[in-house]
């Protein structure tokens, strides 16, 4: 079978031939339909993140997949069922996090991530997976099933944010998304249409006209150009935000989030920056966190429950939004196009087969 | 009646004569028994924090009180009942935070704090209060009733910390208290004896022998001298902490908390520092928050529910601990002694009358 793999740092993925995998006991064999591409894939390709399984030079890419059960292999799944795989797997034997269904809470070294670190991804014509990590999705949603994984990331972040404010009455009326990449835009759409937050803002650094700015405004949200309005000035220019979602990986934003938050607000941090020293007014930030009961939460990955919520969320996202978000789906013969970046490209996927 | 008041910035409180207050409708008249002294009082005395009611030069001090209902004035309280007052009051008319019983979540300007900002405190022979802000306490606990307010601060902080980790399985086994002032020590005792956290650590910067170090070790906790083991080195020298409680007001500790935390841990920040710029490795801290699902929460003040929990907690604190914690209770004729600071002084109170 064909697969898309990369030698980390090589700078570009290649098409390789691999044997079709055989499902072990408890695993199903899945025929791949679509696999999305995101920033993490680009970091793996560039060699900034991730690594192949032990003893291998190349890593099969892909962690945002949807497929169809080819061989249920005695599991509870049905052949022909559409499924989305979760990403984390036991590294070498199970641990308490996997045992209780919370692999997203496992610390470094206690997980592999398919397509990212220590385990091959889903960019292959077939893949196998333990049935418990395959989440059913209705057939009609399958063409956008590669959006379930990124949506699940925000399901988790929002769950943690809401939990952190559950000791008092908290109904967010304003939300700010830092970053207008695909995850930021998906999150903005969730805030606008599923969570029904009254007023939302999305920060970027792009000139008009730009398709992501059109998309932000079509959602009924307000675009904030960080070159004109830095994050700490957003409360004065627009308003403070009950909920801030950081999806830039720009470390100063993590600290500026404290200033952008309304009293009793929460900022969820999703970006994964490299070390970077800079000056902060740590006294003022500390004081502001305390006197206004503010919270900052880091969150990474997601578990099966978040994938299940994400399938439901995907069914609620307006078609006009997903039409504009997904700027290209490419067959295996032109898979390179799915990895191109550019001003007109928002979200892409590779098509491995049809339903 | 006699009261202890201060002209903010004057540097020392004085005994003044004031008329005994008359309870308005819905208020009870309370005869004061004891009022504790804490760091906030010292900041008010030094003029770093707080202000008298509008149009007055002097502020009656005291926000950690216990008293006995002298005149129930038609409220549901009973005369002779022992009560502890909460601290925040409506500033000028109610607002949503007070209406829903969460004055602790009110932002700046939407509250007065008795004995601190905009309202006289409880360091007077009598005070009045709306009955809803008077929390009953058993007679046998009344001699330590001035500890209920500081305990309530930690009740809230812990409630928010636990809520922030409620989206997953979280059972803290290790906790680190930054600061061995009276609030830090009270919190440490709560962690050890009420929350039953397996292993606790308390950071200070004092030489042995020192009464607070004895107190820490008598609780079964480990003293960490910050001059030998800076906060970021605590995980290597001792262990990382599932829960960090910052009670120093030293802004660098707020950021160092991220390094002291175990994966999926939460740091609660209580200190209120002045502005202070310094360098941080913001990239590394941001990354660490995200990849290990860490949380930082600011928290201030407490509401009636926290005071009720605090009464229960006070009943569970070992007498050996409170005996060592309270280093002096002084009558009105020697009230100045309660405001002295020094190496042998941990927690003091002024006695206004006997039960």
UniProtKB/TrEMBL annotation, chains A, B:
The chain positions of domain Glucose dehydrogenase C-terminal read: 143-352
Q: Does the keyword GTP-binding apply?
A: no
Q: Which GO terms describe its biological process?
A: non-phosphorylated glucose catabolic process
Q: Where does NADP(+) bind?
A: 180-183, 205-206, 270-272, 299-301
Entries under Gene3D superfamilies matching the protein: Medium-chain alcohol dehydrogenases, catalytic domain (3.90.180.10), NAD(P)-binding Rossmann-like Domain (3.40.50.720)
Q: Which residues bind substrate?
A: 40, 113, 149, 301
- List the GO molecular function terms: D-glucose binding; glucose 1-dehydrogenase (NAD+) activity; glucose 1-dehydrogenase (NADP+) activity; NAD+ binding; NADP+ binding; zinc ion binding
Where is each Alcohol dehydrogenase-like N-terminal domain found? 25-139
As recorded in UniProt, its EC number(s) are: 1.1.1.47
The record's listing under InterPro entries reads: ADH-like_N, Glc_1-DH_arc, Glu_dehyd_C, GroES-like_sf, NAD(P)-bd_dom_sf
Alphabetic keyword roster: Carbohydrate metabolism, Metal-binding, NAD, NADP, Nucleotide-binding, Oxidoreductase, Zinc
Q: Which reactions fall under this protein's catalytic activity?
A: D-glucose + NAD(+) = D-glucono-1,5-lactone + NADH + H(+); D-glucose + NADP(+) = D-glucono-1,5-lactone + NADPH + H(+)
Q: Name one Pfam family in it.
A: Glu_dehyd_C
What family is it from? Answer: Belongs to the zinc-containing alcohol dehydrogenase family. Glucose 1-dehydrogenase subfamily.
Know the name of this protein?
Answer: Glucose 1-dehydrogenase
The top of its lineage is:
Archaea, Methanobacteriati, Methanobacteriota, Stenosarchaea group, Halobacteria
């Amino acid at each position: 079978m064909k697969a898309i793999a990369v030698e980390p740092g090589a700078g570009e993925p290649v098409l390789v031939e691999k044997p079709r995998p055989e499902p072990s006991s408890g695993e199903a064999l899945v025929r791949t339909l679509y696999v999305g591409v995101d920033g993490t894939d680009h970091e793996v390709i560039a060699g900034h993140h991730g690594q192949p399984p032990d003893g291998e030079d190349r890593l099969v890419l892909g962690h945002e997949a949807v497929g169809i059960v080819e061989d249920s292999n005695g599991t509870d799944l049905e052949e022909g069922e559409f499924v989305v795989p979760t990403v984390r797997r036991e590294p070498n034997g199970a641990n308490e996090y996997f045992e209780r269904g919370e692999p997203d809470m496992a610390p470094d070294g206690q997980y592999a991530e398919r397509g990212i670190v220590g385990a091959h991804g889903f960019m292959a014509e077939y893949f196998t997976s333990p049935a418990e990590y395959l989440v059913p999705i209705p057939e009609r949603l399958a063409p956008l099933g590669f959006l379930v994984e990124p949506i699940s990331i925000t399901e988790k972040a929002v769950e943690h944010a809401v939990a952190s404010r559950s000791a008092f009455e908290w109904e967010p009326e304003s939300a700010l998304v830092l970053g207008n990449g695909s995850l930021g835009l998906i999150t903005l759409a969730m805030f606008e249409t599923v969570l029904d937050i009254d007023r939302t803002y999305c920060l970027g650094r792009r000139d008009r006209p730009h398709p992501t700015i059109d998309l932000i405004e079509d959602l009924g949200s307000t675009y904030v150009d960080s070159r004109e309005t830095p994050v700490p000035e957003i409360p004065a220019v627009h308003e403070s935000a009950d909920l801030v979602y950081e999806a830039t990986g720009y470390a100063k934003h993590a600290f500026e989030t404290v200033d952008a938050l309304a009293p009793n607000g929460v900022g969820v941090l999703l970006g994964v920056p490299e070390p970077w020293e800079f000056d902060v007014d740590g006294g003022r930030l500390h004081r502001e966190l305390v006197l206004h009961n503010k919270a900052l939460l880091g969150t990474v990955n997601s578990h099966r429950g978040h994938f299940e919520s994400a399938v439901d969320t995907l069914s609620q996202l307006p078609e006009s939004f997903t039409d504009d978000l997904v700027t290209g789906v490419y067959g295996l013969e032109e898979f390179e196009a799915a990895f191109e970046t550019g001003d007109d490209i928002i979200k892409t996927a590779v098509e491995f087969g049809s339903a």
